[in-house]
């Protein structure tokens, strides 16, 4: 499963690579079935204040979200709550949820097994990581017909490290991802640009908000391109890559499991105290060890 010289060159030049059939059909099915079980045990009323949105004006003051770093929590689609602030009863429970995060890779045995598999570790090592740690995982649903757009962003805006950016996204398709159901789009070469914004806490325990840091930097002239993939395919990209997805207007779902890692302290890297995602004091991020 080692990366070829051609794959490494593409990753370094374009800022992403696609590894076909990275997960087996059995692994994909196991993860989807496990999420179905988690949904069965979920009470949407527990998540009524957890509507998930993206965009330039995103402002989070929800303790349910801020406290999800080391828990498995469910986040609703914007249309899941009616004008009275109540969960809509005309939508199946499985279609109310936008995503589940952010500790599946720790607290669920099925997702832990994949996240800490030898093939994940080997790929990360091939990309030069010395002390990979896992701060975050997410299961994204991209619901049929109502799955919203995810605006252009860099993951390192949310998962910031110093003295350099080390975030790596591992985007695993659990369904075919196409132009019709809202596949990933990336802007090749954008990983060579500076980080534009930080999603930062204003103070200890404060509400995170976007902070502009390099909005005037000149970006690449290369345009966004779609990355259509099959179930089991993996898209890998650094946290500085500009990427987005369009709404899912099709009748087909587009589930993904997304794992984010960064370099740890043994590689001389520090997790920013400004990041929204913070473990309790004294609790380190889990190391990636197969």
Automatic annotation (TrEMBL):
Keywords, comma-separated and alphabetical: Dioxygenase, Iron, Metal-binding, Oxidoreductase
Molecular function terms from GO: dioxygenase activity; metal ion binding
Protein name from the UniProt record: Phytanoyl-CoA dioxygenase domain containing protein
Keyword Glycosyltransferase: no
Cofactor section: Fe cation
Taxonomy of the source species: Eukaryota, Sar, Alveolata, Perkinsozoa, Perkinsea
């Amino acid at each position: 499963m080692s990366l070829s010289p051609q794959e490494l060159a593409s990753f370094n030049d374009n800022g992403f690579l696609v590894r076909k059939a990275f997960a087996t059909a059995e692994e994909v099915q196991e993860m989807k079935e496990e999420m179905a079980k988690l949904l069965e045990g979920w009470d949407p009323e527990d998540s009524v204040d957890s509507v998930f949105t993206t965009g330039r004006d995103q402002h989070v003051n929800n303790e349910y979200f801020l406290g999800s770093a080391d828990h498995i929590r469910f986040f609703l689609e914007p249309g899941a709550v009616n004008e009275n602030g109540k969960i809509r009863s005309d939508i199946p429970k499985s279609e109310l949820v936008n995503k589940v995060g952010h500790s599946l890779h720790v607290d669920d045995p099925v997702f832990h097994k994949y996240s800490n598999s030898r093939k994940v570790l080997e790929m990360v090592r091939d990309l030069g990581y010395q002390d990979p740690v896992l701060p975050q995982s997410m299961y994204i649903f991209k619901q049929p017909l109502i799955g919203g757009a995810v605006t252009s962003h860099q993951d390192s805006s949310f998962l910031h490290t110093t003295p350099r950016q080390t975030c790596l996204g591992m985007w695993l398709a659990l369904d075919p991802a196409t132009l019709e159901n809202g596949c990933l789009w990336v802007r090749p070469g954008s990983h060579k640009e500076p980080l534009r914004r930080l999603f930062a806490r204003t103070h200890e325990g404060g509400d995170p908000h976007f902070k502009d840091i390099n909005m005037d930097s000149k970006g690449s002239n290369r345009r966004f391109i779609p990355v259509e993939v099959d179930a089991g395919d993996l898209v890998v990209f650094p946290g500085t890559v500009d990427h987005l997805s369009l709404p899912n207007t099709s009748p087909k779902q587009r589930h993904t499991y997304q794992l984010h890692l960064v370099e740890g302290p043994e590689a001389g890297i520090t997790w920013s105290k400004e990041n929204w995602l913070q473990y309790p004091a004294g609790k380190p991020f889990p190391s990636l060890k197969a």
